[in-house]
Amino acid sequence: MFDLIPYSPARCSEWNTFVAQSKNGTFLFDRGYMDYHADRFADASLMCYLEGALFALLPANRVGETLCSHQGLTYGGLVMNEATTTAKVCQLFDELNAYWKKQGVGRVVYKPVPHVYHRVPAEEDLYAIVLKSKAALVGRDVSSVITFSHLLKWKRDRHYAANKARTNGITVRQTDDFEAFWHILSDNLMEKFGTRPVHTLDEMLLLKSRFPDNIQLWAAFSAEGEMLAGTVLYLSRDVVRAQYISASPSGKRLHAVDGLYDRLIHDVFSDFRLFDLGTSNMPHSSDLHDSLIYQKEGFGARAVCFDTYEWQL
């Protein structure tokens, strides 16, 4: 049998060490990242031990009678190491379901780590939740991912726009001026969707201070030094993810995003395995944002699904 132990700060070092050595974990599961907004969520994360050794982690929070893969993260399924086997994960979910039921949980909402973030195959949990929990697919977002070992040809209009950006004298560099970018990003989101960034500026600066090597801001600048566009990037092992992308009105006219991503894809991160340009769903919806995904696919990115499963106890 497994020992299922609720996470506590006293186990922070053990948790973080397991994440760093796991086959499907990213720095988002480090408690330094997860706990920056601990006041917003009732943490229900579990550490799963087998014969005294840590076998797996489950980042989670609870809302009433619902147990959720941690809602402060893009994904949050079972974090496993290379020794994990399918039979043991099936056994684990049998015991997890019994444990949660005793805790008064009536429903589980589960967001597995997308396969593009796996260091080696890690879908034992997907098999187990269907076999043992009768989980149903209830949500599907689409992200757009570039494979550096097989770069696809850019669409003609993206090539044209990137060339125009160079002609317009736009330069690209890494910067720590998150405040300038947050003005661009916030104005854009409010105008288009009436929303704000998921992270406040202060939160992003805090996370940047905790993970300086994993979180980077790259921006496109005019010849006069004005920031025209930017992207906040999350670097997890050999995968880059665009957490935010935005341009000012001037940046849009001058094709700053195209110039920015031309440099990032073909130069700065060309040694990485994958570049995840992020999801293209409308806010709080699975409906597709057509123009956004058109732009990403124009860069040669193709679809990877970010799924949500659910089951009753």
Helix residue percentage: 25-40%
Low-confidence stretches: none
How much beta, percentage-wise?
25-35%
Biggest sheet layout: 11 strands, mixed
User: For the largest beta sheet, what order do the strands appear in spatially?
Assistant: 2-5-6-8-15-9-14-13-12-11-10
Order of helices and strands: EHHEEEEEEHEHEHEHHEEEHHEHE
Radius of gyration: 21 Å
Class by SSE composition: alpha+beta
Gross morphology is: elongated
| Number of E-type strands | 15
Straight-line distance between termini: 20 Å
Kindly state the mean pLDDT as a whole number? Answer: 96
The tally of helices reads 10
Question: Any overview of this molecule?
Answer:
This protein has 313 residues and is α+β, with helices and mostly antiparallel strands. The chain has ten helices and 15 strands. It has helices at 12-21, 31-34, 86-102, 124-133, 156-167, 178-193, 201-210, 249-253, 256-268, 290-298; strands spanning 2-6, 42-43, 46-50, 53-58, 60-63, 66-69, 79-80, 107-110, 136-147, 171-175, 215-221, 227-236, 239-247, 274-279, 302-312. The strands form two sheets. Strands 2-5-6-8-15-9-14-13-12-11-10 form an eleven-stranded mixed β-sheet. A four-stranded antiparallel β-sheet has the order 1-3-4-7, sandwiched between helices. A hairpin with a 2-residue loop joins strand 3 and strand 4. Helix 3 (86-102) packs across helix 4 and helix 5 (156-167) packs across helix 9. It is elongated. The two termini are 20 Å apart.
